[in-house]
Write a structure and sequence with these properties.
The structure holds 2 protein chains of 2 kinds.
Chain A: H1 10-22, H2 29-35, H3 39-63, H4 69-77, H5 79-112, H6 118-135, H7 137-162, H8 179-194, H9 213-239, H10 249-255, H11 267-296, H12 303-319, H13 324-331, H14 334-337, H15 340-356, H16 361-367
Chain B: H1 2-21, H2 25-46, H3 54-65
Helix pairs in contact in B: 1-2
The chains are: A mainly alpha, B mainly alpha.
């Protein structure tokens, strides 16, 4: 039995995927160290790498309509191995939510309220996400198009306001990044903004028409990728070689907007938009975490465990990294390697085994 | 410390009665298990006792033990 009874449609799924990918807009910074002014190329390459990987997620969900990944693992691998693999998913959801919560904490602590204790931001943000998750998947999906529309408008507006100080010679020379650095950057961008959408394997089961999901998910991925590309191009064009020295390149580039000394301090908008986007992404991750834990424990609802799980996540967020530098350094290596088998191979292998074993069995019987 | 006790008392007061009233044993046990873990972690954090990060363990396993690490960007 699925713990979620609400249904969402494919258009809402498109906006959810777009908003989810956009939620990582702050994390493009992690790739700037490796590819510097050529980060835009790494974003494009990452979209190309991510499309087949994410298609494997959708293909798996389409083969098992109405089921989430915890149920699929039980069917494909059996109850024991299936639950062990499901624990890997849960571990990933738990850590990824804590990273996103930490991102918000660091954003507010560094740029907005340096004297306030970070645990306050972590707790306030996590409880807000828990409130959204408590309302269910449907209300979250219903606001997805508003979130995407607002973020798209603000990003476009900031890009237009910065056009007069953009220097496109900042992108030169092209192709001077060592191959290993480029691969590293693509690995970071593919894993974090794009393949974290593996959380949707807990959501695809709630689609009203799962068979139509592929097209909408891929377009959602491309739309979100377009926003990341816009951010990478904007920051490099505005900041040039200094792009590698700032903690948040988006904040620094937007601070340079000065239209007749009236339109200034637009970096406030970056803070607002990033809060909204990370809220949306973190809420979907918390939803995936709560539903997956409830599913593996055989609960009828995820609501009773939501608040205790959120509290554990707050402490995890507070202790997971020592500092923003530790956050960046760990994410660039251990942070992407620990999830690589899960993100790139596990759903594809599950799909392959399901095809070989001709699962699900009821579907086969219906066909015959 | 007082904040932690107040918040957790409130969470217990809000969540426990409906679970007991509806006889949802599995949900009740799950809630109590996660509640205890969350409460202990919060108390340790409030008392400034260091809580080990799972990323430290992963970092050791992946970077030091398995040697999986990209070279430092130049």
């Amino acid at each position: 039995m699925n713990v979620e009874r609400g249904k969402i449609n494919v258009t809402q799924l498109f906006f959810c995927v777009t908003g989810f990918v956009e939620g990582s807009v702050l994390l493009v910074n992690f790739a700037v160290d490796m590819t510097k002014s050529q980060t835009w190329m790494a974003v494009l390459a990452s979209i190309a790498v991510a499309i087949p990987v994410i298609y494997s997620y959708v293909a798996l969900a389409t083969r098992f309509p109405g089921l989430n990944v915890i149920q699929i693992n039980d069917i494909v691998y059996g109850p024991i191995l299936g639950k062990l693999i499901s624990l890997y998913y849960i571990f990933f959801f738990a850590l990824t939510f804590s990273f996103n919560n930490r991102d918000i904490g660091e954003l507010y602590k560094i740029f907005i309220m340096p004297d306030a204790p970070m645990i306050f931001f972590l707790a306030a943000f996590a409880v807000t996400c828990a409130y959204a998750v408590h309302k269910g998947l449907e209300p979250l999906a219903r606001v997805s198009h508003i979130i995407v529309a607002i973020s798209f408008t603000v990003m476009l507006l900031i890009f237009l306001l910065l056009i007069d100080i953009m220097d496109f010679s900042n992108f030169l020379p092209l192709f001077d990044v060592p191959l290993i650095s480029f691969i590293h950057s693509v690995h970071v961008i593919t894993a974090i903004p794009f393949c974290e959408s593996i959380a949707f394997l807990m959501i695809f089961g709630s689609l009203d028409k799962t068979e139509k999901a592929a097209k909408y998910v891929i377009w959602g991925l491309i739309s979100g990728g377009f926003i990341l590309l816009n951010v990478a191009v904007r920051n490099t064009a505005v900041l040039g070689n200094t792009v590698t020295i700032w903690t948040s390149t988006s904040f620094e580039s937007t601070r340079l907007i000065d239209i007749g000394t009236v339109l200034t301090r637009m970096d406030l908008w970056i803070g607002v938009i990033q809060t909204i986007l990370i809220f949306f992404k973190a809420s979907l991750l918390l939803y995936a975490l709560a539903t997956s834990v409830a599913q593996i424990l055989g609960l009828k609802s995820y609501l009773p465990i939501l608040l205790p799980l959120t509290a554990i996540e707050v402490i995890l967020s507070a202790t997971v990294y020592q500092s923003p530098v530790d956050h960046a350094m760990t994410t660039q290596n251990a942070g992407i390697f620990y999830s690589t088998p899960l993100l790139y191979f596990t759903p594809a292998i599950t799909l392959l085994i399901a095809v070989i074993r001709k699962l699900p069995k009821s579907k086969r019987r219906k066909r015959s | 410390m007082i904040y932690v006790l107040t918040i957790y008392t409130l969470v217990a007061i809000i969540n426990l009665p409906p679970l007991i009233k509806n006889g949802q044993k599995r949900e009740l046990f799950a809630f109590i298990a996660f509640f205890i873990v969350a409460f202990v972690l919060s108390l340790l954090y409030a008392m400034d006792i260091e809580i080990p990060s799972p990323m430290e363990g992963l970092k050791y396993l992946i970077e030091d033990f398995m040697g999986l690490k990209y070279p430092e960007p130049k």
